[in-house]
Amino acid sequence: MFAERLVIFDLDNTLADRDMFFGEWAESFVRTRQLDPEIAMPILRLADQDGVASRSAFFAQVGPRLGLDEPIDDLVDEYWRDQIGRYRCDTDTTAGLLSLRHLGYKVGIATNGGAAQIDKIKACGLDGLVDGFCVSRMVGHAKPDARLFAAVAEECGASLDHAWVVGDRPDTDIAGAVAIGARSVWLSRGMCWPIVEYAPTLVADNAADAIRFIVSVDTAAQSAQF
């Protein structure tokens, strides 16, 4: 129905609930090390920077503040073992991705980060649900650079013409959509749009809703042509 149309998704806090997984890890970390949660949890949340901070930088910051004496490399390894074990997609998101491909869309993932992002994708089973994915450090370009999105399109065997971009970050996902001239769906996570210079095409609460909106808009546009 929509052959050759491409939808490019972000990974963290878009296809998978990274905030929830981090929160689960933080609670377990505080509990097993017998830290005061009222002190430790805000320190962990602040240092995390919504997942932007590298894990080495994260533990270098929180270690001294929480009195941790373990080597940073050991803490990083432990963190990733925990997180990869938690990563999953909810059933609505999985169903939405399957419906997109059934309708003829190509589906890709563009994510900033390193090799751990590939582990997350595989842990969620997303490698079998999408046509291609690219990770910034593997490609050499990070969102919002248009070249990362172009690399995803190439992996998917699709064009960026008529593409959609879905993600939660205004500065990387939606800015990236602007860079390639694509339509976009911003997952607001309960926030108000913060940028004046540009805005998303649509706003949704989650990836499954974003998929429904995309199909609805494209169906209406196709019907208007006849």
Description:
It is a single chain. The chain is an alpha/beta fold and 226 residues long. It has two domains: 6-16 and 88-224, 3-Layer(aba) Sandwich (Rossmann fold); 18-86. Helix content is 53%, strand content 12%. Strands 3-2-1-4-5-6 form a six-stranded parallel β-sheet, sandwiched between helices. The longest helix has 18 residues, at 207-224.
Q: Which CATH architecture of the largest domain would you pick?
A: 3-Layer(aba) Sandwich
The chain-level mean pLDDT equals 95
Summarize the main sheet: 6 strands, parallel
Under CATH, the homologous superfamily of the largest domain reads HAD superfamily/HAD-like
How far apart are the termini? 14 Å
Rounded to an integer in angstroms, the radius of gyration calculated over CA atoms is 19 Å
Unreliable runs: none
* Tally of discrete structural domains: 2
Annotation, overall tally of beta strands: 6
Major β-sheet strand ordering: 3-2-1-4-5-6
| Approximate shape | elongated
Query: Strand pairing plus helix content: what structural class?
Result: alpha/beta
Elements, N to C (H/E) = EHHHHHEHEHHEHEEH
Helix content: 40-55%
**What fraction of the residues are assigned to beta strands by DSSP?**
5-15%
CATH topology tier name of the largest domain: Rossmann fold
User: Tell me, what is the CATH class of the largest domain?
Assistant: Alpha Beta
Number of helices: 10
